[in-house]
Design a protein that fits this description.
The protein has one helix spanning 2-33. By secondary structure, the chain is mostly helical. The chain crosses the membrane at residues 6-26.
Amino acid sequence: MGCNSYLHYRWVSVLCLIVVCGFMGMEISATVQNQTASLLVDAREQYKRPIPKTLFGIFFE
């Protein structure tokens, strides 16, 4: 009896985990789908600067 209840508890836990992860995946895909981004670069002559020799001040993400 004890072994069967343990297996039942484990099966229900795995099933709940799958369901929760599925709903979280749907929520994430729904929120990311409608986002847009744009990048504007002002390349006019008056704003030009030389490229530095070192990479200090550049953020890598």
